[in-house]
Description:
The complex is a heterodimer.
Chain A (H helix, E strand, L loop, with lengths): L4 E3 L2 E3 L3 E3 L8 H10 L3 E3 L3 E2 H18 L20 H13 L4 E6 L3 H14 L3 E5 L11 H18 L4 E5 L6 H10 L4 E4 L7 E3 L4 E3 L11 H10 L6 E4 L6 H10 L3 E4 L1 H6 L3 H15 L5 H4 L14 H12 L6
Parallel strand pairs in A: 3-4, 3-13, 4-6, 5-6, 6-7, 7-8, 8-9, 9-12, 12-13
Antiparallel strand pairs in A: 1-2, 10-11
Chain B lengths: L2 E6 H11 L3 E4 L6 H12 L11 E4 L3 H13 L4 E5 L1 H16 L5 E6 L14 H5 L6 E5 L2 H18 L3 E6 L7 E6 L2 H7 L2 H9 L19 H5 L3 H22 L6 E4 L6 E6 L2 H13 L5 E6 L1 E3 L3 H7 L6 E6 L10 H15 L8 E7 L8 H12 L7 E3 L24 E8 L4 H13 L5 E8 L7 E9 L12 E6 L14 E10 L13 H10 L2 E5 L1 H7 L7 H11 L5 H16 L4 H17 L1 E3 L21 H11 L32 E5 L9 H5 L5 E7 L13 E2 L8 E7 L9 H5 L13 E5 L3 H14 L13 H4 L18 H11 L3 E5 L3 H7 L16 E3 L6 H30 L1 H9 L5 H20 L4 H9 L7 E7 H7 L1 H9 L5 E6 L2 E2 L5 E2 L23 H6 L5 E5 L5 H13 L4 E6 L12 H10 L6 E3 L1 H5 L5 E3 L8 H5 L3 H9 L1 H26 L15
Parallel strand pairs in B: 2-3, 2-4, 4-5, 5-7, 6-7, 10-11, 10-13, 13-14, 14-15, 16-19, 19-20, 20-21, 28-29, 28-30, 30-31, 31-35, 34-35
Antiparallel strand pairs in B: 1-8, 6-12, 8-17, 9-11, 16-18, 17-18, 21-22, 23-27, 24-26, 25-26, 32-33, 34-36, 36-37
Helix pairs in contact in B: 1-2, 1-6, 3-4, 6-10, 11-14, 15-18, 17-20, 18-19, 18-20, 19-20, 26-35, 28-29, 28-31, 28-33, 29-30, 39-40
Amino acid sequence: MDLRTRYLGLALKNPLIASASPLTGSLAGLRRLEDAGAAAVVLPSLFEEQIAAETALRDRLDDLASGFAEARGFFPEGSLPETGPHHQLELIARARAALDIPVIASLNGVTDAGWTRYATLAAQAGAQAIELNVYFPPTDPRLDSKAVEQRHEDVLGVVKRAVNIPVSMKLSPGFSAPGAVIRRLDAAGADGFVLFNRFYQPDIDLATLRLWRQPTLSSAAEIRPGLLWIGALAGTLRAEIAASTGVETADEVIKYLLVGADAVMTTAALLRHGPDHLRGLLAGLQRWGEARGFATLAALRGRMSRAAGGWPDDADRGDYIALLQNYAAPLP
Amino acid sequence: MSQRATMDGNTAVAHVAYRVNEVCAIYPITPSSTMAELADEWTAAGLRNIWGSVPVVQEMQSEGGAAGAVHGALQSGALTTTFTSSQGLLLMLPNMFKIAGELTPSVFHVAARSVATQALSIFGDHSDVMAVRGAGFALLCSASVQEAHDLALIAQMATLAGRVPILHFFDGFRTSHEVNTLTLLDDAEIRALIDDDLVRAHRARALDPEHPVVRGTAHNPDTFFQARETVNPFYAAMPGHVQAAMDRLAAVTGRRYSLFAYDGPADAERVLVVMGSGAETARETAQVLRTRGEKLGVLQVRLFRPFAAEAFLAALPATVRAVAVLDRTKEPGAPGEPLYQDVVTTLAQAFACGARPALPRIIGGRFGLSSKDFTPAMAKAVFDELARAAPRQGFTVGITDDVGHTSLDIDPGFAIEPADEVRAVFYGLGADGTVGANKNSVKIIGEDAGRYAQGYFVYDSHKSGAETVSHLRFGPRPIAAPYLIGHANFIACHHWGFVGRRDILRLAAPGATLLLNSPYGPDEIWGHLPRTMQARILALGLKLFVIDASRTAEEVGLRGRTNTILQTCFFAIAGVLPRTEAIARIKDAVRKTYARKGEEIVERNFRAIDGTLARLQEVAIPTAVTATWDRPPPVPAAAPDFVRAVTALMLDGRGDDIPVSLMPAEGTFPSGTACYEKRDIAEDVPIWDPTSCVQCGQCSFVCPHGVIRAKYYDAARLKDAPEGFCAAPINVRGFPDVAFTLQLYLEDCTGCGLCVEACPAFSVTMPGRKAIDLHPKQDRAVAERPRIKFFEALPINDRARVDFANVRGVQFLEPLFAFSGACAGCGETPYLKLLSQLFGDRAMVANATGCSSIYGGNLPVTPWTKNAEGRGPAWSNSLFEDNAEFGLGFRLAADQHVALARRLAETLAPRLGTALVAEILAAPQRQESEIRAQRARLAALTRQLTALGADPAARDLLSVADYLVRRSIWLVGGDGWAYDIGYGGLDHVLASGRDVNVLVLDTEVYSNTGGQASKATPLGAIARFAAAGKRTVRKDLALQAIAYGNVYVAQVAMGANPQQTLLAFREAEAYPGPALILAYSPCIAHGYDLRQGLSQQDLAVACGYWPLFRYDPAMRDIGENPFRLDSPRPTIAFRDYAYQEIRYRALAETRPGEAAALLALAQAAIAEKYRTYEEMAGWQASRFHPPVPVSG
């Protein structure tokens, strides 16, 4: 089966993209991913706050040092590393030189200036596309949905104006009308969408009464919001869609493709099983497609999307009603 | 091509010294450390000397070690130098005699500094240089940054030519730290001026097994004397070599120097002879006075030894009738100070032999000790004194000596500061970046053709919230003026808090511009100025500008960083440069300064600059004083007499006005004065929530500044409590009527947040809040004052009823170390506070020089204090290197006096009561209750002894009876002391078996002088002198001490396990022999936010880098394993701890390959070390050293 696809205007040899993780944070990791069959890589996010915090610490150390009669600083002159995104930029440049597959930079900004600046720098460093990780949990109850949506559109706008490479938006499903938001962003010029991101929601430690957060790797059960919304949107957008979250086996890859994803991203499974897991995913996809006589990925993709008639018109509520009525609670 | 540059004196000297040497043996000491640091950094960067080699820079364990290494390297033929000051130079003295005696060419560069006498001082004078003047080194003195740069080379040229080693010195701080414009010697010029034949000759004299000789023999009476006289021709020729070098340098650079530089008319009548930066002041003053018709000259001495009498006589006009010789040193008991004596001798000999027809009147005086400013008014006072009929010999100038009446009167109105100069004074906080920005401004202007700049910076001695005063001059001519600005035409106050507390207009000239960083805008500001300030602004016709720099910073994305903003304001309104040009230049400088830190910082500062100009506003000055309030006195009216008369003046910036009569004669000061300085520096302060608090005491345990105090008391007292006083029922069963209060001293708090981090109790009503939490201070500090007063009136909890054995109990013990000026979040001071709480009322503390001696003993105020009974730690700092021995001396004296007291008590027992005496002599004193009982017995004994009246034995016993309460002797210092400079002494003291307790505040670097590597610095961390990362593991001092068998040893980290720390302190103190506690102490030199200091300690323990353990020989004595490992096996990787800190992380970024290798090595070393400890913890007692009797 011909697995070629397009995402963000980039020709991919297959639909599997290794999304941002420690594996994509080193050249060695990136090479292993490429060798295992990744069609593109997303480098780890460049966090505006992290850079700001590191810079502030350096400033503070310098300022402290200038206030002592006996010390002209606490570290040898010139021994401290430059603060700023140079490491990430260097990785982009080195990845571009070393890899044959497309290199996508991921940004996680806060301010307009930060988004613009890092997008420009990433493009200059050689990124072939930029993924905007708009991690913006709107927990402030005074913030209405319009403002939240506008914020996303603004971020997209400033970055699109700053660079002339494709820009995708990695979104969470946490909108009251995700479809409308995505369409609005599509109209505003997004070249791609990554559906979906997950907010790391806090838990409570009952012993200390403290909130705690711990990243948990996604599981296959979490693909459903993505299936729903990709299925609902595929074929209606100008932009391309990459599915994300919950890709554990080839089954999830196939499901995402069936509802219309142009590409499928995976992180958790690669962290669990290593880059070579990609080979299994690809082989599984290949086997499944060939067993059913699909000659190309395009033939398979979107088969189950709403636009392709993959869902009956009353599927949304009808399924829901049927589910509730037919549910048999397990015996206690 | 000669290049203009702007740099401080240390850099100017190091620039040359590095290029003309092959080996530098170094050791840090203020104010010379910069020279050594630069050499180390240049080596790490691969900078080459003029022969194309990268010099070897070797840090040693002390200056004594550095001198030894220098001697060895010289004897082996390498061109070798060192840099030092003060005590460091004294430690080099034995080797200096050797190096000179062997006629070995070398230059020691010395930033001259006071030698510690009645007190330590880090500041500049010539007492160190004069103390070594007999060693045989030539003494060559520079007076300015340019001169220090040039004479560094002249010294090298001359020593190679004449073989007499040269001590090249310049005034510590005044020259070493003054930033000024100079013309640099380029490498080609330096190359041209060093004669390689002389270098080869030096090499040829080296010890060499190919041509073996013996050097360093021992002589007998028959030959030593003659051999010693062989050097005379070399000394006779030395002035000629120095002058020849000066002439050669002049030929290349045009800058002309002479051994004695006379400035004045050929027919001068009065001449002032002086050495060092004071010469510049004297010269400028004489020039002004000559315009008034006075025939005055100034003779600057550059080469002091060998004293070139002929050259001196040639320089001094024959017409001179009166000569004043100023010495920047004091030689008690001498007929005059050293330079004076040489001048007298020279002139007397010349007169006696007829070379001079008349002997002028010669007087000598002292000036400028410990960087006391030497102003034109003082120089004028000296000239005026010379004009008197009977000028005083042995005068002082610059102080008020109302005891010996030596001081000259000074005309405070006399000033010579030129009209076309911009003189700017800036008041800033230590950590606000003011000094850094000002250095930058000096650089911006100073490197501009046709403009000159000078910067000098005055710091107070606090390490948190320090006040800095920057003195900047800008003008069209080279600026000498080595004295503080007297009349400023620009004054900036960068910290609003100073406006209500300090007289910031003290130096304002009429018509000056005043810039205030103010939260109040131009319409409101006037109403917020104190009365005297308003009056001064009106009287002097000042222009006033305001900017809310903090808000501007916030708005432009530079939260908390105001330095670029305020620097922009200065350039915009001070008129040093046209405004547009100035702004462009600042941006240029910002780019240069911050480029290495990343484009981010550059961009943000650009935005700040642009945003500043829009927000800077001039104030329309009202016509009348309207304020009804004024600056409060610096200390409360109820403070003790000494504090009001002396301390208050120092706190108010008027310490220079304190007369001799008010100063203690032998350096003894009252303890506990820190409580009178309410510094009020925290922006956020802790607030206590009594309802959530579990009263565990963790917060007060870890508080570095002792600002969290706990008491329990009868709840009925609360009826008189002021509004807002917080209390909770004590959470102990069976005490329903007892209340508990945690009182916060907010004006003494630094806002470090360690209390919040330590607090285990989360608020039940305010999710996410803790029982103690930081809040914006606003007016909380003032509101807290009546509550503190009420709290202090509550009864002190009885020590005998407090459980010392747990952290919770310790909070009820009075801290006798509090409110120090240590850094916010300091990792050292909580240990000292604990020591003071547990044993302070019977403790003697010998404190090695370093951070702990500075925050512990630097005036104006000191934190060691006394309890309600008047008892508290008796504290002293002797030196850096001798602390163990000094503290052992305490023990020896105590033991001797205990023995004397016991003998006398036994003798007097029949008259004092045999039962009482028997009880006293047999009293156990390990528990606090036993100590209290002994104190009660001694009170009875004292009454009995007093009743015996004049009986000599009774009086003798009375004089030593205090020793019958067990003394707790503590030897305190940092790792620089314990691992390096004081290690030999410490080792000896531990081996002595005497009952002393050693507390090593282990920050793993020399914190006080800026984080230089010690032998405690860990593998893989960067530090000064380890710019490429430390390549060896830290010394295991604990295992070394354990090897003695009879030394109690504990390794603690309060943040990881406070209970273990407490246990270790108590066991160590109770152990009747030597005890050593290694205390992990977070420090800003580790490079992280110290609010995380506790969790970082936790990680250090969790990864096994800093295992907690106790080795108690007493356990061995009862057949138990004395070694107890108190922390579990490593649960995290070393990396997870280390890479939280810049000291480790930096190397990973700059040299990733090496860092990874070092990290792996460090991890392996940790694993191996842990295995060793774990194995020891499992040994049978018999595998340890058998019990060794202790002699305490």
